Amino acid sequence: MADQLTDDQISEFKEAFSLFDKDGDGCITTKELGTVMRSLGQNPTEAELQDMINEVDADGNGTIDFPEFLNLMARKMKDTDSEEELKEAFRVFDKDQNGFISAAELRHVMTNLGEKLTDDEVDEMIREADVDGDGQINYEEFVKVMMAKRRQRKMTEKNQGQGGGFSKEDKVNDGKKRRRRRNRDCWIL
């Protein structure tokens, strides 16, 4: 993953890493990681920091060396890109830009995408995402459902060897119905 970083990014990360490698041993402690990331414009929670450490601390010694740090930053930057994609997708659905996706807006976008959904199907999509029960989807609810669907899709693809992620039930349906079901389930991105 770090191989996707530019030379400029690697230099910037090396400089930041060196600032916090107080004893010059090539490793930063988990406590220092939060400070490093905040200096680079990230704002991780304590739980996120611990998860990040666990993900990249290959040798399990509780510290992060520079190659581990590069992998971590590459992942974080990819997540930031995903967040921008989600914001753009939300804006596409939120036609009147009031901060909410209504059933009418959802139906309109889905129709433009070639999906003729019934009122029940639209209502089902709204219910799936509408955590606060107000009948519309705000940005936080949209992100939550999209990230959950993305994780679910990745797990399905992993389990099916990079297949399309359809269940057996979907495979017995005709292609059009299968596509509609997948789009409704995945909310489309």
From TrEMBL:
<dbReference type="InterPro" id="IPR018247">
    <property type="entry name" value="EF_Hand_1_Ca_BS"/>
</dbReference>
<feature type="domain" description="EF-hand">
    <location>
        <begin position="117"/>
        <end position="152"/>
    </location>
</feature>
<keyword id="KW-0636">Prenylation</keyword>
<feature type="domain" description="EF-hand">
    <location>
        <begin position="8"/>
        <end position="43"/>
    </location>
</feature>
<dbReference type="InterPro" id="IPR050230">
    <property type="entry name" value="CALM/Myosin/TropC-like"/>
</dbReference>
<dbReference type="GO" id="GO:0005509">
    <property type="term" value="F:calcium ion binding"/>
</dbReference>
<feature type="region of interest" description="Disordered">
    <location>
        <begin position="150"/>
        <end position="189"/>
    </location>
</feature>
<keyword id="KW-0677">Repeat</keyword>
<comment type="similarity">
    <text>Belongs to the calmodulin family.</text>
</comment>
<dbReference type="InterPro" id="IPR011992">
    <property type="entry name" value="EF-hand-dom_pair"/>
</dbReference>
<feature type="domain" description="EF-hand">
    <location>
        <begin position="81"/>
        <end position="116"/>
    </location>
</feature>
<feature type="domain" description="EF-hand">
    <location>
        <begin position="44"/>
        <end position="79"/>
    </location>
</feature>
<protein>
    <recommendedName>
        <fullName>EF-hand domain-containing protein</fullName>
    </recommendedName>
</protein>
<dbReference type="Pfam" id="PF13499">
    <property type="entry name" value="EF-hand_7"/>
</dbReference>
<keyword id="KW-0963">Cytoplasm</keyword>
<keyword id="KW-0488">Methylation</keyword>
<keyword id="KW-0449">Lipoprotein</keyword>
<dbReference type="GO" id="GO:0005737">
    <property type="term" value="C:cytoplasm"/>
</dbReference>
<keyword id="KW-0479">Metal-binding</keyword>
<dbReference type="InterPro" id="IPR002048">
    <property type="entry name" value="EF_hand_dom"/>
</dbReference>
<dbReference type="GO" id="GO:0016460">
    <property type="term" value="C:myosin II complex"/>
</dbReference>
<keyword id="KW-0106">Calcium</keyword>
